[in-house]
């Protein structure tokens, strides 16, 4: 289909765009043809249809990014300049041939997408973090905070979760590792999925939640609704920013408190990143077995320190935090991206208390091409999987510090 290109075409489209905005008309082919006549131009049918499609994509779609976002293999789309549009298809970032006309076109798209998501994005508030109606996660930053050009980050949420079998086929889970993960869910052990940005934490957690029994009620609390577990009974709660008057703020801490009143069989925090850690640990210590979530960490061994930092910032002293952690959490699944860009479970750790009473993680399994390789914490993990939630946590029955 023919489109309008070049400086003259861009100027013509700007004129059509202004006419449509002033008249309040939708960019239908008939309206575009009328707008073109108002500009003193008469075009053929193919050019009119091409201009209509181009304008409609820009005004109500995602513009030049639409083909990328429609590609089922794409997980992330990143725009850092008009001629720098990157995608991630699971193997690392790839530069695409997609181009914007100029930096102003990137800014217009960023502001329109933010408006669709109900967020303000302008010079007074030059960044926005939001979820689009189709579930896509949007983050945008405008100049001068973003130097030279508006920056867009779009994370595509699959309409359905990966199955555990698909993760084994993709190499995220080693052969046979799915049996251990199924046993982890069946035993109702509390666990965290850790890793860096883009390592697949949400993907793995969604797959694991799909293994939860259909008679159990899952309550999700998330900053942005990204988890898509294939499960018949899921309640989804999402945070909300304050409005322009500063009212209406709903935090993740608020959601965790509300979730506890909703009779959850499994309480899930999409990402533990703030004071909600206090309520989550308290919940996991008061009969809410099988709770889980994700946390950013460079390694499984860093998870206790990361939770300590979040807990102490929320007013929980170090000793109390570690006591809560010791009784609440059983397992850490740590994800990485290797040099080829493949996401995989690098380590599985269990928790134990050191002589000072602080919690530390102990490697139980590590990645192997043919299967998980057992480490010194394997016997503890095996005992937890056999004993279920009744033996969970480093202080649980039958899992003393010397057992590993």
Automatic annotation (TrEMBL):
It comes from Streptomyces paradoxus. One of its GO terms (molecular function) is ATP hydrolysis activity. This is Pilus assembly protein CpaF. The keyword ATP-binding applies. Belongs to the GSP E family. GO terms for cellular component: cytoplasm. Residues 60-343 form the Bacterial type II secretion system protein E domain. The keyword Nucleotide-binding applies.
């Amino acid at each position: 289909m023919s489109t309008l290109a070049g400086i003259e075409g861009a100027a013509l489209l700007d004129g059509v765009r202004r006419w449509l905005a002033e008249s309040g008309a939708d960019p239908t082919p008939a309206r575009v043809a009328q707008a073109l006549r108002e500009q003193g131009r008469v075009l053929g049918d193919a050019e009119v249809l091409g201009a209509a499609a181009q304008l409609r994509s820009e005004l109500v779609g995602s513009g030049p990014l639409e083909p990328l976002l429609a590609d089922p293999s794409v997980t992330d789309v990143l725009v850092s300049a008009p001629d720098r549009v990157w995608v991630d298809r699971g193997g690392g970032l790839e530069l695409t041939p997609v181009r914007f006309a100029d930096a102003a076109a990137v800014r217009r798209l960023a502001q329109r997408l933010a408006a669709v998501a109900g967020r303000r994005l302008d010079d007074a508030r030059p960044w926005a973090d939001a979820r689009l109606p189709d579930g896509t996660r949007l983050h945008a930053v405008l100049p001068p905070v973003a130097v030279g050009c508006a920056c867009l980050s779009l994370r595509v949420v699959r309409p359905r979760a990966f199955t555990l079998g698909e993760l084994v086929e993709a190499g995220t889970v080693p052969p046979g590792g799915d049996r251990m993960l199924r046993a982890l869910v069946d035993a109702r052990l509390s666990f965290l999925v850790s890793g860096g940005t883009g390592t697949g934490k949400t993907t793995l957690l969604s797959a694991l939640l799909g293994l939860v029994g259909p008679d159990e009620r899952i309550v999700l609390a998330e900053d942005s609704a990204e988890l898509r577990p294939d499960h018949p009974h899921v309640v989804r709660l999402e945070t909300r920013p304050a409005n322009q008057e500063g009212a209406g703020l709903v935090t993740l801490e608020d959601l965790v408190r509300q979730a506890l009143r909703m009779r959850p069989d499994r309480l899930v925090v999409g990402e533990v990143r703030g004071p909600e850690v206090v309520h989550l640990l308290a919940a996991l210590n008061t009969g809410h077995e099988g709770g889980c979530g994700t946390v950013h960490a460079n390694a499984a061994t860093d998870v206790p320190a990361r939770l300590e930092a979040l807990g102490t910032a929320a007013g929980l002293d170090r000793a109390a935090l570690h006591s809560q952690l010791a009784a609440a959490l059983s397992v850490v699944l740590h994800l990485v991206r290797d040099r080829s860009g493949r996401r995989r479970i690098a380590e599985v750790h269990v928790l134990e208390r050191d002589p000072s009473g602080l919690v530390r993680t102990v490697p139980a399994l590590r990645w192997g091409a043919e299967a998980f390789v057992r480490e010194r914490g394997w016997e503890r993990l095996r005992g937890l999987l056999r004993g279920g939630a009744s033996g969970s946590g480093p202080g649980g029955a039958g899992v003393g510090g010397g057992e590993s």
